[in-house]
Amino acid sequence: MNDSEKKPIKNTYFLYLILLLAVLIRLLYLYQYSHLPDWDQLTIDNHYHHNWARTIADGNIFGDTTYFRAPFYIYCLGLLYALFGASLWVGRFFGLTLGLGSIILTYLLGRRIFNVKVGLGAALIQALYPVIIFFESELLLDPLFMVFLQLALYRFMVWRDKGGWGKLIIAGISFGLASITRPTGLVAAGVILLVLLLKDKKINRVNIRTTAGFLVSLVIVIAPVTVRNLIVADDPVLIASQGGINLYIGNNDAADGTSAALPEPLGINWHIRDITFAAEKETGRTLRPGEVSSYWTGKALHWITSHPVKFFSLYLKKLYFAFANLEISNNRDIYAFFYNFTFFRFNPLSFGIILPLAVISAAVAWRRSQTARLLVIIMSIYLLISSVFFVSARFRLPLLPFYFILAVFGLGVVMDFYKTSLKKGVAVTFLAVLIAFLSFYTLFPPSRKGFTQTLVSKGLYYIHIEDYPRAILYLKEALAYEQDFLETNLNLGVCYLRLGRTDSALYYFNREKINFPERPKAFNNLASLYLVNDRVNEALGEIEISLSLKPYDPVANMIYLRAVALKEEISNDSLSALITAASQRTGADIYLLNEAAALMLHRQDMKRAESLLLVATIAEPPPIETDDYAFSKEFRNSPENIAREKAKAFHQLGYLKGIGGDFSESVRFSREAVKYNPELSDAYINLISGYLSSGNKPAADSVFHIAVQKFPDNPQLERLRALMKP
After folding, report:
1. Topology alike, domains 540-636 and 638-726
2. What's the DSSP call for residue 632?
3. What topology is assigned to 638-726 in CATH?
4. Are the beta carbons of 340 and 36 closer than 8 angstroms?
């Protein structure tokens, strides 16, 4: 075997060693991560992806409305959940696999653009780079987008070198897959279309044919998403409807360029229903998601054209953050999280070190390599366009492998300068240090909101597991940083209420109301607290303010109905009219319907209660694509929660039919209740009673034996035992 044959094998071994190192680091990271409370503390987008993927795994393949977010990552996650179960381990191992695939592609791109050493060096940096390892395991779409963007560029470069329609089509399909993972992939695809059309600096028949072939392969992937939006929602949205609000987030009077916050009263915790309501209120008509996106796009463009100086100043600030040695996160303080891991805490790799070498590399390679020039053009245009929106570490992630490739080549360039001329070597080193200084220098101090949000998220986690004293510690620490951080006082009030300290709960709820008088949650909580203490009029006063702010909120509407139902002067007819109005405002929310039926039952209005329960049995949750509750851990409208609510409705119907003497209907409804929730003991009791009352003792015996095995300590079953005797 000669030296030329040995070299590829040696290089392959080096790549295998890098991949092995990457696997070991990531497995150790996941092991340590799984022992932290942060493991279950998904943030907003993670919850959304996890919950949406669960519904896909449960069979909701086509969905119900326009995609709010590009769907490909979620469908991949849903497929994995269907195969292996809806586990965070499954999602995180998927991210690890994507990370390894990306390392391989980094090697292949570095080798093709420059040489094997550059490919191996860039792959090694990526194997060790903290931010990439972090995002791989966060159930976010960005690692998948990174992989497809790399694959698309690599396949295009292969086509440029070797030609062939098949290679071009594979490149187009890869760009399409990147775009339905994150629509900003269309930016890179647009650059490629121009390169193809203007090849050899002229437009001719061959170029047009090649461009058309690439475009067709791109459309083949994107068209099914567009057609699906048309069929399901009659909404001509190309991929997703998130673009308009994202543009407005980055371009308004309150925008800071880095946070995903809207102007108050929507702020950082805005919901899809909020932005839809605001758009519909101003336009005076019901809007489809695509029209809502267009509305916010119009608002953003109006602000840009009305405030050109502010826009340009904000845009420059966003560009600075795109190149700054800062890892900005909207929902979790990355640096605080990294402190939990020794490998991250002492890892010297950071963007401020990579950037200067990449800039030097880009300047030198621009004249040496057409392929490198294409890479720099795509990176530059992508950065310029994406910075029009807002900047975060996630949005920079897909470009990091390209920075690594350029940085490794740039290191070689610096070394070559020293070999040829000490003066040139010192000059280029000075330039690198200057660029690094500009990246490391905090020109615009980042907001503390990310760190405060991390503390609040920890507090919410401990509220969820009912460890209220520990939740209070984290929430009070958050208040020490920002006295008026959204919902911190609110959640403290919740903790004290659960601990039975109503005076403290009242104090913190009122603080939240004072800080955020245009937000409804504090009014909801105060109303609930007043209701518990039989202060009905005060409860009504608070909840009416809440409804004036957010009339579509199911929780506020339920509290309102509870308060009104306690007023003796309110007749059943009046209460029924109020229930109908509340149901219309909330889109026939099943929780509200069950609550309203219980209120009518309490007032002995069986007919209206039955009518409400019948509606509840056919009520549908909001579309998962735009369900705000899918962004939270509780996921109020999850398939299992809706099934439990339907079981509750069927159980109550069975009970009503039983006391009304219609035992066959009582049995039918009770069986439905058991089908929807096999753990609802009262439904079994209703079913047994219905069978006994209709004279079907064998069926009653069969259900009874099942019930006593499931609920051995249920006293009502013990009382039924006597009736089961011959």
Report:
1. yes
2. S
3. 1.25.40
4. yes
Question: Does position 447 have pLDDT exceeding 70, yes or no?
Answer: no
Question: What's the rounded Cα separation, in Å, for the pair 708 and 688?
Answer: 11
Find the angle CA(474)-CA(480)-CA(485) to the nearest 5 degrees: 80
Q: 425-433 long-range CB contacts below 8 Å, 24 or more apart?
A: 428/360, 431/356, 431/360, 432/356, 432/357, 432/359, 432/360, 433/356
Q: Taking the domains of the chain in order of start, what are their residue ranges?
A: 11-239+326-440, 540-636, 638-726
3-state secondary structure at position 522: helix
Cα–chain-centroid distance for residue 422?
Answer: 51
Instruction: Kindly provide the b/e burial profile for residues 700-719, where b requires at least 16 CB atoms within 10 angstroms of the residue's own CB.
Output: beebbeebbeebeebeebee
Of the candidates 182, 242, 250, which has an alpha carbon nearest to the alpha carbon of residue 395?
182
How many CB atoms neighbour CB 603 within 10 A?
16
* pLDDT, tens digit (0-9, with 9 covering 90-100), for 37-69: 889 888 889 999 999 999 999 999 999 999 999
CB-neighbour burial class of residue 336 (10 A; exposed 0-12, middle 13-18, buried 19+): middle
For residue 507, the model assigns a pLDDT of 94
Rounded distance, CA 274 to CA 327, Å?
29
Q: Contact at 8 Å (CB) between 280 and 274?
A: no
Tell me the CA distances in angstroms from 567 to 494, 585, 600, 703, one per residue in order: 26, 22, 13, 42
Tens digits of residue pLDDT in 165-217: 999 999 999 999 999 999 999 999 999 999 998 887 778 888 899 999 999 99
pTM exceeds 0.85 for this model: yes
Per the prediction, the chain carries an average pLDDT of 92
Q: Which two tokens stand for residue 313?
A: 């100043």
Q: How far apart are CA 193 and CA 158, in angstroms?
A: 16
Min mean pLDDT across 207-221, 318-332, 619-633 is at: 318-332
Can you name the CATH fold of 540-636? 1.25.40
Q: What SS3 string covers 566-606?
A: CCCCCCHHHHHHHHHHHHHHCCCCHHHHHHHHHHHHHCCCH
CB atoms within 10 A of CB 460: 18
Confidence at residue 5, expressed as pLDDT on a 0 to 100 scale: 47
The span from the CA of 709 to the CA of 132, in Å, is 50
C-alpha to C-alpha distance for 621 and 635, rounded to whole angstroms? 11
Tell me which residue of 124, 53, 139, 57 sits closest to 94, measured CA to CA: 139
Angle at 322 between CA 191 and CA 124, to 5 degrees: 85
On whether the CB atoms of residues 650 and 666 are closer than 8 A, the answer is no
pLDDT at 726 over 80: no
